[in-house]
Amino acid sequence: MRRIVVVGASAAGLAAAETLRREGYDGTLTLVGDEPLAPYDRPPLSKQLLAGEWEPGRLDLRTPDDLAGLDLDLRLGVPATGLRPADTEVDLGDGSSVPYDGLIIATGVRPRRLPGAGGHVLRTLDDAMRLRERLAPGRRLVVVGAGFLGGEAAAVARRLGCEVTLLEPAPVPLAHAVGARVGEMLTDAHRERGVDLRCGVTVTEVTGHGVRLADGELVEADEVLTAVGSMPNTDWLVGSGLTVGDGVVCDEYCGAARDVCAAGDVARWFNPLFGRSMRIEHRTNAAEQGMAAARNLLRPEARKPFAPVPYFWSDQYDMKIQAYGYLRGHDEVAVVEGDVAERRFVAVYRTGDRVAGALAVGVPPRELRRWRQAIATGVRWREAVQIDAVAN
Amino acid sequence: MKVELEADKCVASGQCVLAAMDVFDQDDDGIAVLLDERPADENLDGVREAVAICPAAAIRLVDQ
C-alpha cells in the first residue's frame, strides 16, 4: 500500500495514523478532519474545560512536533462528502478527491437534536466554549437527558453556581445502561447537590426561553443543553456500497469492505469476546480500535480479531465511576463489594451465564482489574460469584 | 528513551498498567505512577502502546 487515507481526525483517526507509522508504513498518509483544529480530546469538554479549569490548548492530543513527525498529508476543516470504492477515491467538501489503496473510516458521531430552535449540544470544542461562556452563578440551565454527558454537565454547572434542571424521559436515569440501582444512586447524588432532576418527562421542543414538555408545560431556562445521544456520521457513505446500520458495519477485524476499515464511535463491529456486534462511544475504545484497524489494514495476512473489554469512566461531583465490559442488556446486577448507598461499591453484571461487566464507584481502580480479567476470559457467573465469596 | 507522565491529566483508566506493567502502576485514586522513567528496551513496545492508548494523552516517550 502506498496511499492510505484516514477520514476523521479525532482520537480514533489519530491512533490509526500513529499506528500505521509505528508499524513501518512509509507511504502517503492523508488525515481528513471536518474541524479546523488539530486532534483534540473530547472527554474534558464536559469536565475540566466546561468547568473553566483547563483552557482549550490542554486538550491537544499531540504536540505540533509529534504531529509533524507523522509526516501527514493533513486536510483539516474539510469534511469527506463521498466514497467511491470502484474508483478508490474519497471526495472532500472542497471539491477535491483523494485516492487510496487503504481507507480507515473514523468519522465519529454527532449529537442528536430535538425539534425547535437554539440550545446547546456538547460534542466539539466550539460547543463547549459556547456553553461555558453562558454558565455563571444564578443562570438557569436546563439539561435534557440524564445520561453520562448530561450528568457531567449538570454537575459542573451546579459547581459553577447555576440553577440546574435535569430532564430525563426514563423513570430512572441510565437504568438501561448500568441498572436501576446505580441509576437511583446517581439520581440521589444529583438531588443532594440541588439539581432539580425530573424523570419520566418528555421534551417535545427547545424554545428560545426553555423547553416545552409533552404535557404542554414550559420549563423556563436561560440556556438549554440537549444531551440525548448521538448518531454515527455515515451520511457521506450513502451510495458507497458499504453496509451502514447504526454505524459502519464491520466484521471482527474492523473490516467494512476490501481495504476499508472503520474505528471509533462510528464503527459497529462484531466483538467475538461477547459474541455480538456493538458500537462503543468511549474514549478508550476509539484509541484501541484505531490501532487495531490500522494493523489489520496494513497486514491483512496477520489480521487479528478486535476483541476488547470496553472501558469507560465518568466524573460526577466527587464520584469517579469506572466500568469494564458490556453492561447493556444485562440480565442481573450483583453488588459484590461495598455498599451502593455509601457510594463505595463494585457491581458486576451478568449476561446469560457469564460476567459481562463490572462497575465501581469510590474504590481503588486497581481492584477492578480482576473483574476485567474475569470478563476478558469469559468466566462463568457462578464461578465468579463463588470466587468472590471465598475472597471475602 | 525517557517516559514523561503528566499526572494531573491522568483519568485513572489504568490502560497504561495493562500495556506496560513494569513501567506503570496506579495509586489508590487510580492516578498513574511512573515506576521506571527509563525503561529497558524490551519494555519500550509496551510503553509505546501505553502512549497510544492513554485516553488522556498524559504519557509521552521522548528521545533523550
Describe the 3D structure.
Chain B: Keywords: 3Fe-4S, Electron transport, Iron, Iron-sulfur, Metal-binding, Transport. Chain B: GO terms for molecular function: 3 iron, 4 sulfur cluster binding; electron transfer activity; iron ion binding. Chain B: It holds the Pfam family Fer4_13. Chain B: It comes from Streptomyces chartreusis. The complex is a heterodimer of chains A (392) and B (64). Helix content of chain A is 24%, strand content 31%. Chain A has helices at 11-22, 48-51, 64-68, 125-134, 148-159, 175-178, 180-192, 283-298, 369-376, 381-391; strands at residues 3-7, 28-33, 73-76, 80-84, 89-92, 97-99, 102-105, 109-111, 140-144, 163-168, 196-199, 203-207, 210-213, 218-220, 223-226, 230-232, 248-249, 255-257, 260-262, 267-271, 276-278, 311-316, 319-325, 332-339, 344-351, 354-361. Chain B is α+β, with helices and mostly antiparallel strands and 64 residues long. Chain B has a single domain, classed as Alpha-Beta Plaits. In chain B, strands 1-4 form a two-stranded antiparallel sheet. A two-stranded antiparallel ribbon of chain B has the order 2-3. The model of chain B has no long low-confidence stretch (mean pLDDT 91). Chain A binds chain B through residues 11, 15, 18-19, 22, 41, 43, 58, 60-62, 66, 283-284, 287-288, 291, 311, 313, 320, 322, 364-366, 368-369, and chain B through 9, 11-15, 17, 26, 28-30, 48, 52-57, 60.
Quick take:
The complex is a heterodimer of chains A (392) and B (64). By secondary structure, chain A is α/β, with parallel strands linked by helices. Chain A has helices spanning 11-22, 48-51, 64-68, 125-134, 148-159, 175-178, 180-192, 283-298, 369-376, 381-391; strands spanning 3-7, 28-33, 73-76, 80-84, 89-92, 97-99, 102-105, 109-111, 140-144, 163-168, 196-199, 203-207, 210-213, 218-220, 223-226, 230-232, 248-249, 255-257, 260-262, 267-271, 276-278, 311-316, 319-325, 332-339, 344-351, 354-361.
Distance between the amino and carboxyl termini of chain B: 5 Å
- The oligomeric state of the chains shown is heterodimer
Low-confidence stretches of chain A: none
Strand content of chain B: 15-25%
CATH architecture of chain B: 2-Layer Sandwich
- Count of helical stretches of chain A: 10
Helix percentage range of chain A: 10-25%
Choose one word for the global shape of chain B: globular
Describe the largest sheet of chain B.
2 strands, antiparallel
How many distinct beta strands of chain A? 26
GO molecular function, one term (chain B): iron ion binding
Cofactor (chain B): [3Fe-4S] cluster
Keywords (chain B): 3Fe-4S, Electron transport, Iron, Iron-sulfur, Metal-binding, Transport
Protein name (chain B): Ferredoxin
